[in-house]
# Entry
Amino acid sequence: MIMCLARITVGIIVVLHTIPSVLAADFRIDDMETQITLSGEIAPGDAERLARIFLSIKPQGGAYFYPSSVYLDSPGGDVGEATRLAQLVRTLGLRVATVPGGKGVCASSCFIIYVAANERHATGIDAVRSKDSLSPVGVHRPRFRIAE
# Structure
C-alpha cells in the first residue's frame, strides 16, 4: 500500500512539474534565432526555462548562433524569479527592449530585468523612435509583507 501511494505521489509530482503554469511567462524565439520574446506574468521556473532555451540551441554550420536580444512584454510577477532572469540577462550580455509599436509593457518586477541589461530600449531595438512607438516601462514602490 505504501509503495503504491509513493508511486502515485511521484507520478503526480512528475505530471505537475511538466505542466506549464498558467501564470508562467511565455518564451518565443524568432525564426532567425536572434531574439527571444518574454511575454506574460513572471513565475517561478522562468529563469530555468530561459537557460534551457540557450542550452538547447544546436550548432549551424559548425558555429553556435545565440539570441542576442530579449523583448519584454510583462506586467511583472515573481520578484525573486525576475531577479534570477535579470542575472541571466546580465551574464549572457543580452540586449533588452520592450515590444515595439507601443504594443507591450514592462512593469513591476519586469523592470528588474530591463535595468539589468547593458543595453536597453523602450521602443524595440531597431524601431524608429516616435511618440507612437514607445512602450511603457512601469516602476512602483515595492510592497513587503511582514509575518506576524
About this structure: The longest strand covers residues 35-39. The radius of gyration is 18 Å. Residues 23-138 form one domain.
